[in-house]
Write the structure tokens for this entry.
Amino acid sequence: MSWRDLRCGEPRPDRVGQRLTLAGWIDTRRDHGGLVFVDLRDHTGVCQLVINPEHAPEAHTVAHELRNEFVVQAEGELVSRAPEAVNPGLPTGGVELQVDRIDILSRSTPLPFQLDEEHVDETLRLRYRWLDLRRGQMQRNLRLSHTVVQSIRRTMDEREFVDVWTPSMTRGTPEGARDFLVPVRLQPGKFFALAQSPQLFKQLCMIGGLDRYYQIATCWRDEDLRADRQFEFRQLDLEMAFVEREDVLDVMEAAVVNAFEALDREAPERPFPRMGYDEAIVKYGTDKPDLRFGLEIQDATEVTRGSEFGVFAGAETVRFIEVPHEYSRAELARLEEVAKEWGAKGLAYIVHGADGEARSPIAKFLSERELSAFSAPPESTVLFGAGEPSLVARVLGGLRLHVARELGLADPQADAFHWVIDFPLFQRDEDTGQWTFLHHPFTAPIPGEEAFEDDPGAAKSQHYDLIWNGWELVSGSIRIHRSEVQAAIFRTMGMSDEEVNGKFGFLLEALEMGAPPHGGFAMGLERFVALMAGEPDIRQIVAFPKVSSGADPLTGAPTPMPADVLRDLGIEALPTEAEHGGI
Ligand code: ASP
């Protein structure tokens, strides 16, 4: 016996006259005098059941017991609805099932929230995620996610990539986050780290002659949770041998475009534009600019040299953005607070009124030359940043995004994809002052710049990021394939030979045994799917996510472990602050 002939959203007028069995959840039940109407639901839609006491007295008795979310099986004849009862808004709206038998397959206790209820507390939704998953939005999102993954796998397959599984339990991989640790009963006191990415394994696959590797890899990073970040997430992780940057970017662009097409969405045009890191920082104040709107940062350092306005005169850099809005004083005070959050001491501005007048507390200090450099159309405002270049970039980059969001400058329908390339090879670690990597230490310098040790700060890398509407979607690089270059990177980072050998000896050894030139990337899958689904939070596209405290409201994890279990692992738990009486 099969439970159903059709799914609930499938009956159409061409089946009228047929006997059908349907099964699903009770969406609604309405009593109309003697007749009972039930909307029977599954993920494909709803079908109306009609239970007539004269036609089917037994079914009618059962129908009175039905409550929302009961699971039932109903059998009867599919009939056309009376013309006045046709619902043109519903794919099944022309028909209904004239039920003569209905069985309750399973009952439901009263629900903690109704599926169509708005503003339900998210923790409650996640606590009862099995109910939440029945909602159309979650069904759509998970299926959309599936379509994207299928499309990616197809793209990879067409291009002869091999899906290789790599270990989750490994040594720490330096991707810039803390590791989740796994104690090992067989070796008490020792720990695996959960892979922050398969980075080194995929490089070893290249050295192993695999040529084209990919994986939809789960990665774990112990970082604070945010709208775009969970402890565990998936990446399209990919590596290719004997390639240059453009070969890798080409595969990524194909994967993105094919995913758009799989969802019947208008795909972005290829090739995606490329922008140098330095240009991104200078023009947009960030290495992941949102290019759906202009508001480019302009330079005024030259024009303000020798300015009467002391802040400008003494600043290493002076830059500004021209915002198409005439801000009031109160609004400017609020913008100043935003600028301060980004590290500014204050906010200089010039408001260009509707009357063409330029109004500004600093106007009296500015020369004609300066004022003409800052001229702007009526009803606009020039906002300045002055100081050390990275601070100015941060402040104006932050203000640029803030005002664009407030003024709705970004076209919500636009999809602006672009690559950022030519990143610096090193940056200074703010805490230690040491040189450190920007993404991970396996990124190759640009060809010809292998002698970076003399001036690490000037060296550029072959790293690339793909940005979509201001989100960093993809990160990757051409890797170092020569052990002496890899060793020089570790040396520049101040690592001792002992430390290098302890942590990365196996990599250096592998690089000494015939490593082909190679490169790859990783794309955050949940971010990609969330953007595709138009969801602001990746929790909406993850079946069982954690909340921002890092807990799982459904299972109650994480939980304490009994002392004897920990002892077997060579671990002793310290009292928490609460147990200390701290909280
Ligand atoms: N392993 C890097 C990451 O997870 C990506 C890459 O360089 O391929 O971000």
Q: What stands out?
A: Residues 136-158 form the longest helix (23 residues). The mean pLDDT is 95. Residues 225 and 549 are 7 Å apart (CA to CA).
